[in-house]
Amino acid sequence: MLGAIIGDIVGSRFEWYNRKSKEFELFTADCRFTDDTVMTLAIGKALLESAVDYEDLKDKAIFWMQKFGRKYPSAGYGGSFRQWLYTLNPKPYNSWGNGSAMRVSGCGLVAASLEETVRLSRRVTEVTHNHPEGIKGAEATAVAIYLAKTGSSIAEIKDYINRHYYNIDFTLADIRETYRFDVSCQGSVPQALEAFFESVSFEDAIRNAISIGGDSDTIGAITGSIAQAYYGIPADIREKAVLFLTAELLAVLTEFESKYPAKVG
Length: 265
What we know:
Layout: H1 2-12, H2 35-49, H3 57-71, H4 79-85, H5 99-102, H6 105-110, H7 114-125, H8 132-149, H9 154-164, H10 172-175, H11 189-197, H12 202-211, H13 216-231, H14 235-241, H15 247-259
Helix pairs in contact: 1-12, 1-13, 2-3, 2-15, 7-8, 8-9, 8-13, 9-11, 11-12, 11-13, 12-13
């Protein structure tokens, strides 16, 4: 979960000012957390508060996303999602946006099986992103996280993703020059996955994600969430990242990690 938050914070200053390079300072005073962090922690809180069988996870996800979303109204939500946040009886709105994938990391971290990963991912996704591409993007991300945390190699994870979700037949070098801002799952999740597939460390994965440009905070969040499960997070990066969180958000992260300890890089 912190991996997604770090990717979001690092990418926040590049979302509208893309840097097509891996050479940059990870954390500066211009960095901040965005809606990616807020919603990642909202889903984490929903998972913590749900029943053992997660039958009430949809309701919990709605409750905590609305609660945190209203608490942090300037985090950078899209128009349709912002309207959803303030709706009394919110309904899904057929979104295929990458917001479904950036917030789903908790599902891959808590799930006890691949089947449960898919089930949890769909429950927290369908409350907003019920378009097939929105569901697919979140599910592919959560599945990659589950496979990473349970010992699959990068080659094995990529093979599974290629067979079941996306045919990723490009390299970052192929797309770096021409890739542009794209908020769709189909136009950003494969790129975020490839950033992880080409990485050699957690930090390298984040740098890969930022280096292609596009929706940098969200691509960083997706890549970071998988990289955390695979590599763990170096202590120095963790220490710097948590300084950007409010006490309330840090408390949720701490609560989640006390039950689902994070891998240390």
